[in-house]
Amino acid sequence: xxxxxxxxxxxxxxxxxxxxxxxxxxxxxxxxxxxxxxxxxxxxxxxxxxxxxxxxxxxxxxxxxxxxxxxxxxxxxxxxxxxxxxxxxxxxxxxxxxxxxxxxxxxxxxxxxxxxxxxxxxxxxxxxxxxxxxxxxxxxxxxxxxxxxxxxxxxxxxxxxxxxxxxxxxxxxxxxxxxxxxxxxxxxxxxxxxxxxxxxxxxxxxxxxxxxxxxxxxxxxxxxxxxxxxxxxxxxxxxxxxxxxxxxxxxxxxxxxxxxxxxxxxxxxxxxxxxxxxxxxxxxxxxxxxxxxxxxxxxxxxxxxxxxxxxxxxxxxxxxxxxxxxxxxxxxxxxxxxxxxxxxxxxxxxxxxxxxxxxxxxxxxxxxxxxxxxxxxxxxx
Length: 381
Description:
Layout: H1 17-27, E1 33-34, H2 49-53, H3 72-83, E2 94-97, H4 100-111, E3 117-122, H5 127-134, E4 138-146, E5 150-152, H6 154-159, E6 165-171, H7 183-196, E7 199-203, E8 228-233, H8 234-237, E9 246-251, H9 254-271, H10 276-287, H11 289-309, E10 313-314, E11 322-326, H12 334-339, E12 342-343, E13 345-346, E14 357-361, H13 366-380
């Protein structure tokens, strides 16, 4: 008997040839320099174990007192985080979620009927495709282009808007380009949203990681002429992806914002997914984020210096944990680099159309990063 599954999960579940090559190389015991490492808990950073784990034992977590938005003191901690970014965000405008992925799910349900569309940047992280499929939402890409820095193609973005478009999504800074939306771009996007009655969804998980000499400003800073949702969480802010804490800050004209918050409360109340121990710990985790952020920023800066000293061409970026490189030799592919013992992401993984583009993680341990870049330089000759 054949089980019938939903079409929304009819993905190609087969292993890619590149993933298979990596698995086989590891199984054979080959030494590999992995320049794709993006899990901060596995990248050699020093965590304050007691300070992180102790708040999870708060005895108040034994009481079940659910608030679909999240407990007030936890939302106040998020509000204080934005105050550190010079933004005033009312705790009443914040919904806690178990991750930014869940936050996207909430917003896709809030804004879209089945078959409606969200405009998303390209290049960008491929997770959006799966999140949209699960909500029966269609994604329409709008391009980021490179010209001595990354820019949004605003004209082409507006051309992609249809009667089914419900929102424009930004990642700020973008993963993997590192593009931070500039003030002029933001004002143009807000004007487009107003013209077409669209919401703006802004993913700021990498906000706290500007590259040297760059400035990245939060979208929680007003004014907010269009309905705006800002997403973030401690996966990147405190480098604690395993603790599963994220949030949505709803901003914009009062009538639209209040209606959105009322509807989001019902969505959240259906799931009640934020656990109490994590909420009690959240003020402590956010309050102690500076130590781990300093380590990560130093790692990113060091690895960017390695790229600058190399013969490789690193595309300019404003922030985040990734960088795109232009391979100097025509025909050099990620499989060739793997044969030489270096793992990188092919640009196509992020929707980069140009050939000869690879993506490396800037939080890779410095010694591994230096050795990997040196090997790529050697292979490029």
